[in-house]
Amino acid sequence: MIIIGINAYHADSSAAIFVNGKMIAAIEEERFKRVKHWAGFPRLAIEFCMKEAGVSYEQVDFFAIGRDPKAKFINKLLYLAANPSGSFKAVKDRLANSRKVASIQNELAEMSGLPESLFIPKIKQVEHHRSHLASAFFASPFDEAACLSIDGSGDFSTTMIGTGKGNKIHVIDSVDFPHSLGIFYTAFTQLLGFPHYGDEYKVMGMAPYGEAKYTDQLHDVVKLTPDGLFKLNLDYFRKGTAGVISYGEDHIPVVAPMFSDLMVKKFGQPRAKDEPLSQYHKDMAASVQRMTEIAIFHILNHLQKRTGLDSVCIAGGVAQNSVANGKITRNTGFKHVYIPSAGHDAGISMGAALYVQQQLQEMPRQEPIYSAYTGSRFSNEEIRAILDAKGIAYTQLSDEELYDQVTDCMIQGGVVGWMNGRAEFGPRALGGRSIIADPRRTDAKEILNLKIKRRESFRPFAPSILKEYVGEYFELDEPVPFMEKVFPIKESKRSEIPAVTHVDGTGRLQSVDKTVSPKYYALIDTFRKKTGVPILLNTSFNENEPIVNSPEEALACYLRTQMDMLAIENILIKRK
After folding, report:
1. In this predicted structure, what is the pLDDT of residue 241?
2. Of 187, 215, 336, 435, which sees the most CB atoms within 10 A?
């Protein structure tokens, strides 16, 4: 059984392939297009997945599309009828987008040179949020668990709750657009002066610098309902029929301003582009984050009581809120949490394929997915050929020599580009495409922002920690394979690792497993043997672009920044 999952004509377009139940490859189209959140048809991602699996178009049993334009069709019509004053252009754009999704066979036929008739019976459309639920539950280690998908919107839903058991997911309830925690968070992200698609993480990073002084006022914006769900006070938001996200010919998602005049009146004018962040902005960020957490815990506590289960699987854009994720086991009845590496919309491709595989084809469950390394990879021979053609000086080292030189460089205050094995699926660098540094240095953040990142000073850097040492450094000892949770760092350890300790004493950790990431684990362990600290500072290998995918992109990023060293597999490049 061969299934290709596709997220198309939607932000973070991607593809994933499963062969006889096992995920062979998964990757975002942006890694090839080099445009963040690229939202067209993921042609290059599909071709990559097929090449990695060594299969032809004729051999693929199903193409699973993570959108279903027919989903909640009556609800959509009722909403449009109740809101007739919306933008004609917005409705026209959505219909055009839906038509594209409904005619995927055209794209596949054009790509392959084969007739459309070959593809029509193979296409399965899976509702957006069911795809999210499947990406979390069917990849999890749990035979039975509660399930939550929560994001901006998709197929007219914004939140979906259910249960998973064996190879079936049962949907309990959902929340319809425009009542959306994602829209709530995005509207305030825009008000705080961050207008671009995907900027919400900046508000999350800024929140610890403020106090949650305005949470009471925000309870008038987000209304928690007795059924364990929520509604927005829509007076605070721009009408949904006026358009939310649009995609131009360049396939870059553009988010319209989502706040209304009332929100501006109650919470202040939008921060201008060059306006400095005031304490009010920081306090508002803290309040928005707190309100979001209150709403998430409200949903989860009701879901836990309703199901009686102690494990939960979560996906969707709001599931990228790692601060909230790290508090779930302390604020709800759930004891175990699984969130996939691509909890955001890129994971729709993986989820749609899993939904077809498990729910529709009733295949037995496979091993849980703890590795995000499903993307591009390159051999030492390929890397040498690229560098020789460019006249770049390098040395090829054994694994042990490489670990020794890289860790010495970091201990001496250096910053290293580290590209090893397959690229990660999802928004986090997990030691496949990372920039790494010594977490003990008080000046590491300044060095990184000066040499490479040039990003907002309030955004934290993450610790990659050997799995066995999590309990020694953090107040919670739970597996965090995909950097999807923020935990408090033990007070006694904060001064030891200042570069990865946020202002509130927390860290967004990645627990590194020897069996999943053997070379990255060995590198950190070499650093531990030299310093006594089993942690590296880890940030994504990029500079205002998608994470690097190929050796050429890693080299270009290295050359235009002031990184001290570049390690691609066993090949080492140093500054003169």
Report:
1. 59
2. 435
